[in-house]
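Form 7-S
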Amino acid sequence: MKRKKLLAFSLAVALMAGSVLSVSAAGVEDVFDANYYAGQYSDLKAAYGTDGEALLQHFLTNGAKEGRTMSPILDVVAYRNAYADLNAAFGDDWNAYVDHFLTYGIKEKRMTGVLFDLADYASKNPDVKAAFGEDYAAIAQHYINYGIKEGRPGGSIQTAAPAATGNSGSSSNTPSTPTTPTTPTTPTTPPVDEVKPAEHSHVKGIKLSELAPTCTESGYIEWKCNQVLLENKYDADGNWIGTGPKLVNGQPVTCDVIWRETLAQTHVQPETGNVYVKHATCTSEGLIRYTCTRCGENIEQKVAALKHDLNPVPVKSVGSKSCKLEDRGYDIYQCKNCSYTEKKDRAPLDHKMAGQPNVVKASTCTTKGQAYGHCDTCGKEVYVDLPLKAHATTTVTAYADTYLMNTAVSHQSYQVTYCKDCKEITVVGTPSADVNCVDSNKDGNCDGCGLRMDRNVTSQVKIYSVGETYFANVQ
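Output:
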């Protein structure tokens, strides 16, 4: 059921070989995903199951007006609301909005309401690009029918956050072309300490839309994550210097993941008046009755029984406490609100050994040792962990770098206390004032601290912290 129409929005009458050129336009069906649409809304899943034709007709007749999203590629309702020129041109013709998006919107970088970047998907899948070129309707169908199942790359949305100044909320008929951001220089062989920026947890940053639930249908709140994305940073020589905010045209790039939080359908209780017919207890369910103030239906609902609330002090104890599992005994506790009782077995006591146990393995300052002996109570052979050995500490003078942006090199001295056996640092003293590095013998090292004179931001020596491993006073 392909919907075809003449593309009147952007083509004037064109003559080719003396005849009028007709162009088939795209429509909602080209990006519609029945599985996605039904999966987003439990009421539609229950009503239509996997009937793609019925689901498509529901969106065209009701879903779009209700603000529902029918595709993982485009939220056509948000796309319409974002651009006044399109709203004025197309009104409620949802097929026209999709046709504009696939024919012009992608090229014009109109990204509001776009959930999946088809151009990026095509560029990262050469076979798709070769097969369909810039036929984004065909590319959309490939992604929905094959790309999702095959886990193909590409399509993620990354949009620069709006600048602090400027006119927001308005759209121009001819959007300006964004400036291509400068790609940082990447060294041929990255330093071994280069790391991938950590993945962030999506947050409810921006509320895009909301549909209140009714007595018969669920609602939703649509959220967009606006966490600033991170990327690796490099200096002018291509050396990795850490991670920082990703920028486009000087503005931070934010995450554009969009999702919907379902609001469960529910009846509305009266604000005043007692709706409880019977209150729940720990032995029986409760019951409420009321007339819904929204639909007028008489509602009767059960309330789950409460949990028993046991007293902290047992009402009865059986057996003596022992390290023997079979002799550990048990306690009986009673609910504060009813006659319910609950039996709880006691945890067995720890075994006890008098005298010096036999050492199997001696402790070090990093690994507990082990010993065995016989319990004085039950006579069982017991293995026990021995405490860690104390650190054998020593204190030395260490040096740290105060390298400053290729303009000056200086150092600080401070005291470091560490274990001679495991090298764990236990105490770090306060660094001294900066002292300029001097290389009088021209061996390439500072005469005072021993650090290299040609160190830079990627090879600088930092101050030790407690818990780190001590290597040397010159790291």
